[in-house]
Design a protein that fits this description.
451 residues; alpha/beta; Nuclear Transport Factor 2, Chain: A; Rossmann fold; eight-stranded mixed sheet; five-stranded antiparallel sheet; 15 helices; 32% helix; 21% strand; globular
């Protein structure tokens, strides 16, 4: 799974990682970084439709392009990032054994890497990833905590790079496992200029709480997972959360009886399911933290988000209206899930993913949680709103094990901003609010270990 514009709760807005047979003879092969530079330059230009029939695509990628209305239709999916302002040179890498070209692009709203995956010279995938341009960050060093590289094993796939941030001292320390929001996220949950998971890890470690964060499965293994028509939120986040709890509990200086799980956005939605899966495991979570989680269906939330973002535009062009109508028509298909077969997808997401979400009664699962739960909400969040917070309060606010806090002036990533800024809030440097970090640390500190 991939999300293209990471601030949306949408599970996918741009993905085509489809490997199949090679290219037809009359089309150009993608072989060098210079080829990737040329492709992206035209793809982001004024007339991407002129590229149709020029480059070699795998058969599955050709099918994906038809769904988007050709290369120009795929290029339109980049609109939320803004206009391209600077395109850095492509560099070659590898994704699941396939050649991949990364092209860092500075957009007017949010910078991102565009990643071309190539199989036998044919373009087999085009996705977005964390921006790799500019200065590269090294692992954090501090007088207050140590940052230890710790990979998480995934059965039949490999390892997910991760970092365990541990306070200085003898311990044992309580620990928190961080679970990403929707789409393809790195260990810092990077979105635009924000890195909320890095902020939480370093802020909590400075307050005596160890934190484990890792690259999301879809970030590391996107190519292998894209063809999996049975892929669901359980595979995307829940399994890795459960395994991370077991692994972190075994680490030096960690108190195995005080492991917490924190989920942000769609990761917060997954918390009740994670709690269920931890039942009967050797190590269960001592408590849970849900940041900007919604009890409402994902497609309902997506409609609301799109409507709000379009409402911020001074005027909507005919082309933009057509794109909106097309997106909503896709979402309409989710009203009849029985009509969707195994090979069907909606907004690039296989039907199995949507069907799993539809069958997941989040409120029922949340009510089953016996451990302490802390639910936090930014009052300026346009993606998960105070309407969602009100539902949580109505349904679960009276339960003794639930604590709920909302924060005036904070947005979806719990940084300062205003709802009316829309996605522009992700374009500036900002850190997770200190009150949020303090409240999480206090919640953990007040939750005693069970012996």
């Amino acid at each position: 799974m991939r999300k293209f514009f990471a601030v949306l709760l949408a599970a996918v807005m741009l993905l085509s990682f489809c490997v199949g047979a090679g290219a037809e003879a009359e089309t150009r092969k993608m072989e060098t970084a210079a080829d990737a530079d040329e492709f992206i330059e035209a793809f982001l230009g004024e007339h991407p439709e002129e590229m149709d029939g020029t480059w070699a695509f795998s058969p599955q990628m050709e099918a994906a392009l038809k769904q988007y209305g050709g290369i120009s239709g795929l290029a339109k999916q980049l609109a939320p990032l803004g206009k391209p302002e600077k395109i850095d040179p492509a560099y070659e890498g590898e994704v699941q054994g396939y050649k991949a070209f990364h092209i860092p692009v500075v957009f007017s709203v949010m910078s991102s890497d565009l990643i071309l995956v190539v199989a036998d010279g044919a373009i087999a995938g085009l996705s977005t990833g964390a921006f790799s341009g500019g200065e590269k960050e090294e692992i954090a060093e501090s007088e207050l905590f140590d940052s230890i590289e710790l990979a998480l094993a995934v059965e039949n796939l490999g390892e997910l790079p991760g970092i365990l941030t541990v306070p200085k001292g003898e311990g044992p320390f309580p620990a928190v496992v961080l679970i990403h929001g929707s789409g393809s996220s790195d260990k810092d949950e990077t979105v635009g200029s924000l890195k909320p998971f890095r902020d939480l890890a370093e802020g909590l470690a400075a307050r005596g709480v160890a934190v484990y964060r890792f690259d999301k499965r879809s970030y590391t293994f996107g190519l292998a997972l894209a063809a999996d028509k049975h892929f669901t939120l359980e595979n995307e986040s829940i399994e890795d959360a459960v395994n991370a709890v077991q692994m972190v509990a075994a680490q030096e200086k960690i108190d195995p009886e005080r492991i917490f799980v924190l989920g942000h956005s769609l990761g917060g939605n997954a918390i009740p399911a994670i709690a269920r899966e931890l039942e009967g495991k050797p190590i269960r979570a001592r408590g849970f933290i849900m940041l900007a989680a919604s009890p409402r269906p994902l497609d309902e939330l997506m409609r609301e988000q799109y409507e709000y973002l379009y409402s911020l535009m001074p005027e909507i062009t005919e082309e933009q209206q057509a794109e909106k109508d097309q997106t909503f028509a896709e979402l309409d298909r989710l009203q009849d899930l029985d009509a969707l077969g195994e090979d069907d997808s909606v907004l690039g997401v296989w039907s199995a993913y949507w069907k799993w979400l539809a069958a997941y009664d989040i409120l029922e699962a949340a009510e089953e949680i016996k451990e302490p739960v802390l639910l936090l909400q930014g009052e300026e969040d346009y993606q998960v709103t105070m309407e969602d917070y009100a539902i949580w309060q109505e349904k679960l606010g009276a339960k003794e094990n639930w604590t709920m806090i909302s924060y005036p002036g904070l947005t979806h990533c719990f940084v300062a901003g205003e709802k009316t800024e829309g996605s522009a809030v992700y374009t500036r440097e900002a850190a997770v609010n200190e009150d949020v970090i303090r409240d999480i640390a206090d919640f953990i500190g007040q939750t005693e270990a069970v012996h």
